[in-house]
Design a protein that fits this description.
2 helices, GTP Cyclohydrolase I, domain 2, two-stranded antiparallel ribbon, alpha+beta, about 130 residues
Length: about 130
């Protein structure tokens, strides 16, 4: 049976919840529609997060991202909405969504939205010789 787009984000238990580590997911085929012209907008999304108890299941993330294909949305709104849905599903220690939209009328747009859990403090950077 073929897959269809859907807004359900599935999760699984973090196998390394005892430590901070980062997960980076690159999604180069994001599309939505311009709310003014209804023309397609194309973007590359990069999700970076430090999981707490849960991680996102990748097939559900793919179907979730696909669900925006025919959705009218401003770049800023869609980036923040996606981040909000992911934070609500995962409750990560830290999460950043970087949305790099392709050129439209000679203008590139990049939107970066972040979430930090109130009790989470990032570890000090390690400087190696």
């Amino acid at each position: 049976m073929p897959s269809t787009p859907e807004r359900t984000l599935e999760t699984f238990p973090n196998p390394g919840s005892e430590r901070d580590y980062s997960i980076r997911i690159r999604m180069p085929e994001f599309t939505c529609l311009c709310p003014k012209t209804e023309q397609p907008d194309f973007a590359e999304l990069t999700l970076e997060y430090v999981p707490d108890a849960l991680c996102v299941e990748l097939k559900s993330l793919k179907l979730y991202v696909w669900s925006y294909r025919n959705e009218k949305a401003f770049h800023e709104a869609v980036t923040n909405h996606i981040l909000g849905d992911l934070v609500a599903a995962l409750h990560p220690r830290f999460m950043r969504l970087h949305a790099d939209f392709n050129v439209r009328g000679g203008i590139y747009t990049t939107v970066v939205a972040e979430h930090r859990a109130p009790e989470w403090e990032p570890p000090a950077p390690v400087s190696l010789p």
